[in-house]
Amino acid sequence: MSAVFAAVLAVALSSSSVTVKNRRLERDETVGKALTRTGLDDAANTQVQAALKAAGFDFKKARTGDQLRAVFEGEGLVSLDYRRSLLTEWAVSRDGAGLRAVKRDVARTERTDLVELTVESSVWDAALKAGEKPDVAITLADVFAWDVDFYRDVQKGDRMRAVVEKVLHKGRVIEYGRVLGAEYVGSSVGTKRSFHFVLPDSSSSYFLEDGSSARKTFLKSPLKFAQVTSGFGPRFHPIINQFGAHNGIDYGTPVGTPVWAVADGAVTRAGWDAGGGNMVCVKHVLSLETCYLHLSKIHVKAGQKVAQKTILGDSGNTGLSTGPHLHFGMKRGGHWVNPLSQNMPRADPLPAALLPSFREAIAPVLAQLDGAASNAAASP
Ligand SMILES: [Zn+2]
Questions:
Q1: CA of 292 relative to ligand 1 center, distance in Å
Q2: Residue 13, Cα to own-chain centre: how many angstroms?
Q3: Residue 136 placed within a domain
């Protein structure tokens, strides 16, 4: 750039006094608050929110980390971009005296792919080896959460196949959508197959091939399979102490692993215990109660109703604990029982009337899974 041009540009910029403010939505922050932090006054803030709303912006879907970019000329707002993910963006700009927002969709392609993983060291590494994002492991762990404990049950040589929706941007996977069908073949859990099905009321759920529900009253694991910020994540091989004298199961896991409610229920306690450290207990049906000990953080309050898979807290090393772990205990009728030996019922099966449409819906997915199975068998 020539010196003269640079000087002209500098003058042009300073005379228009354009400022750009970039902000991210903080944890538990509302869009309104974040807008205030960009420097908007109350009137402009209300205008921006009204414009976003008119463009179909769903404020309930605002998430920590969403990005805002506001451009001001002097005191006045010129434009504002709100980016929710790599794929969805809203652009607010001046429109006469008011503001107008439009939703911008970033170029994306969607396709359904067969994903095949073979575990050698961890599910995480298996995903990377298959050329997938590790997120696919989390997605699959969620589908099998009623039957496979991804911290306890995964063995070397276990195989997974899944028909998964992918969202791509410039040829790279950005996120995984629904898992339409999946198979787990493991030495400790046997073969499990689950299929996604949309019910007439447009809710959806997972079912086994014969139409019985894949869901159970209780999940197999008190730990949500997740990438942990400490960097270990599920690569870390947990030390499991089976049910014994101390009335529970210990999962050796890095501090910060999300701990979830294994079943629907109501929180009976959430607070400090001399031995248990930060401790949460939840009461369920069948006079069952579960307790989660040594947490680093608690995310629920006593009396609160929780659904299965609600995150109760993060695992930790508080109270009488000699290393980062989750102690998981279960009571039946007030007495400690071994969670591993409880046989939990499945949710209701599909009504017989829906079976024909279910079979029709899963046929192509089954063909893909079976095709993969025979290919694998044929290869040396
Ligand atoms: Zn323990």
A1: 10
A2: 44
A3: yes
